[in-house]
Amino acid sequence: MFERTLQDLIRGLRAHKASSKAQEEAFLAEAMNEIRDELKGKDMALKAEGILKVCYLMMLYPIPPPVGFAFHVVEVMSSPRFHLKQLGYLAAPMAFTGDTEEVVLTVNGIKKDLMSSHLALPPLPLTALPHLLAFSPSLSHTLHPDLLHLLTHSSPRVRKRAVLCLLPCWEAFPEGLREGFPRLRERLSDDDSGVVGAAVGVVMELARRQGGKNYLPLAPELFGILTGSSNNWILIKVVKLFAILTPLEPRLVRKLLPPITSLISSTSAISLLYECVRTCIVGGMLDPDRAEAEPLARVCVEKLGGYLRDEGGDQNLRYIALLAMVKIIPTHPHMIVEYQDEILQSLDDPDISIRMRALELVSSMVDRENIRSIVDRLLAHLAPSGATEGLPTAAATLAAFAGPSFASSSQDPSATSARITLSPAYRLLLAQRLLGIIAHDTYANVTDFEWAVSVLVDVAFVSRVGVGADVRDLLFDIVGRVKSVRPFAVSALERCLNDDRLSELSVGDEAEAGLLEASIWICGEYSSFLSSPLTVISSILLHVSHIAPSSLVSIIVQSVAKIFASYCVAASSSWSASTSSETRSLSLSIRSGVESLHSHSGNEVQERAIELSHLLDFIDADLASYRPPATSTKSEIPGVSGGFDTSSSDQPTYPKSLFLLSPLYSSHELNAVAVEAQAFISPPEGLNIDLDIVPGGGFPTDLESYDMDEESEEERSTVDLGEGGSKGMEDLRKIIRQQELEDQQRRKGQKLKGKGKKSDSAVLTAEEKAEKAKRKAARKAKAKDDPYYLHDERDDKDDKDDNDDDIDEIPIVHLDDTEMGTTGQLE
Amino acid sequence: MIHAVLIFNTHGKPRLSIFYTPIPPLVQQSLIAQIFSLISDRPAGVCNFLDAPDLVFPLPTNLRPKATSTNDRWKGKDRAEDDDTRVIYRHYATLYFVFVVDGAESELGILDLIQVFVESLDRSFESVCELDLIFHFDEVHHVLSEIIQGGLVLETNINEISLCVRSGASNRKASAASANPIIPTLLSAPGSRPGRGSGPGDGPRRWLAAMGV
Predict the structure, then answer these.
(1) Which residue range is the domain that position A809 belongs to?
(2) Which of A160, A304, A359, A728 satisfies CB 3.0 to 4.6 Å to A198 for a cystine?
(3) What is the pTM of this model?
(4) What is the pLDDT of residues B2-33, one digit of tens each?
(5) Based on the structure, what is the number of domains in chain B?
(6) Contact (CB, 8 A) for B122 and B140
(7) Chain A to chain B Cβ contacts (< 8 Å)
(8) Do B157 and B199 belong to one domain?
(9) What's the confidence (pLDDT) of residue B186?
(10) ipTM for the whole predicted complex goes beyond 0.90
């Protein structure tokens, strides 16, 4: 039989690359067949070659390994030949996955190789072990002693590999950590720098995954490495490790400052210098309480700023400078401001990596002064391109929708910048950042809410990346919180509603319908600010369609009703024949718009539509039967009308039904309640908040006190919230009372859950008590001989007193009850 | 730690792919394709760090550093808050060398490490080129295994690395030459039990038989 080596296989694959797909697949299938035979054969060298070929093919094609692949790998792993064994161990990570049972077969072979006196052998299993150990707790358990043994192997090459294996081993077998930790600690002061580096790496990973708390005791060793080592790689690792440890132990900072500052000033390696700067920032060394913090921060920022300003220099340094500046912003924003120009320039960088970092930095730089300029800048990025910023043309819109799939086909470097702007993922990030900047800390940085609303509308229009729902929520939130912005918001959104582009936007994605939803709802809720309710109603009704989601349609119905209600109220003030006919035609058009919804698939929509139709019926009937009050008749026949004088003067000059709808929708204004609102309500006299509700930390000693607590809680519910004040105050009080009631119910529920058994025992009748005592005695007698029962002498004493408040009386009773029942049956 | 080491050429053909964190093979393939398309899109002269808003490296949950919870709803969407995975790459002639690492590694340090890797390959192949990597697939693995083990850095000194690589190669050569039964196998020399190397293929089967397989 002709045997193909890996080289032959690769040559064959390359030869078939040029030919058709089918031929390549045929070749592949043939090769796999050969490999299968080779794997099954007896020749170990062929088997190893076959395994290597499978590994190669698996890297290139998404093919599953042949049946029994892992088993063959085990065979090759146990070959006595070094070069075959090495191939076996090389393939092991690819052959063994979590569900491979063959791992069990490897244990003895691996053990033997690990303990081999031949220097070249132990590294082979150690290379493959991290992968195998991570999958198999039992393997980790079995090999743990061997790994610990190898930590003191004579060869540093074996020692450092063994150290690295500890991490996956402890990951799968956490119990080993306790035993092995001191051994790992010894390796931190190993003679060989490679072993020390490996140990530092393992400690770093452990500290990252478990939190650094347990690794603080290693600080002396790590400090020794920091001051003693000259290996940059190890120094970088130690410095990074200290960035995790110092926030947990502030005293470390004072100790670390001298060596780190000396490294900063002396090292020639930028990577080490950068990590020192980063550790200063992340490790809390710039705490403003320290005298040396300010100059140190200055040094750090200057170093980073130097990287950032490095024109034509290293792009990598600009990237990491931006990365580290993000971390320093919270404590030293004033220092970063000096570099604001460079940072803003980085927003336009052709490199998307740098852009993203700059974007992150910029969004944390925002304050009240610069929010406008930064947001404008980001908005310009978000707009498809400069030329179409104002009014996107159809072509630009299309390009924006198509995204990078079209654009990336062109390899023109000059198009790169535009392409980044068009990448949907980047645009999404940009849009989210924009919204985040505005919403940050409950609009802390926003000084002009009219501007904020217009930015939100712009974002919704130009982004086209599915942030519509977020825009909607923000608009609702702003309009609800800021009363003064409502007229502006309504007029802006009214314009949106009349804009054809809006419906274009909302056709596609449901998420894009956010702006439409917000516009309709806000125009409805604050309809008194509308400039022309008639056009708004008709343009809202245009959006009723079968593809519109029912949540949107139900908002439409409700908003139309609200707008009509406020229109009626406004019309009543100047009622005339013309307004009457206008109102009637409006009502008619609404009715025709809503009628189609009577059979809408959404229940909510159906209900609202029918409700509205009926209300309109009332109004129509009233309008039709309405006659203007006959003021003239009164004067003609004064005598006759005398008796009805009072009633006729009360008669309004407009149909009463105009006021039918309005109270349904606008009697309660929606208000935002501040987070601290509760704090403004002063507690009533006689209420001691600091008093323990349950004396003794929630573990009542007797039942009487427990009952008392309940009473005192009842008292609490009738908290006096004061009287008077405006209508808003009254609402607030109502809400607070409501919350208090709910709170109480919840608290009660918890109590019932937690102490339910106890409250049961509180209502025991005398009969039950006797019964219980009997059962208890029986249980005692039974438990006397039970070796698993801890006998409490106090029990006996309490028993004599026949004390109801016996601690044993409480929850355990019922639990034991059931147990007794079952054991009784068994007997 | 280092999550993955990838080498692919400028056409996206993988030349080496090693994942140190368990990731299903199909996800691995799609990740390689994704990273390649992002990297090959980048113009010359930009930085060596790949940050893309739509690139997410699916890490097993136990490997993520403990996330600090943020109450701010708008911050919650921030991908960078809890995911510090970075893709760091270097471009040599027709090949991209890509390392996927997390926050435990220094960005600039990894750039140096890639250089160390390439130089080690260069020493082992004597001016390495893509063809070397293609036809000596196993050799590349051996070199890398002297630098990284299980996602943690084993050695950064190029001299020490090439020493280890060379001694491994000579061991292999000796072992392969000893296929001739007249020459005693390398491993039956000191320490191992007599009769162990009695015949190729015999040992493992005996060993498996002893295990009751």
Answers:
(1) 766-826
(2) A160
(3) 0.72
(4) 999 999 999 999 999 999 988 888 888 889 99
(5) 2
(6) no
(7) 251
(8) no
(9) 46
(10) no
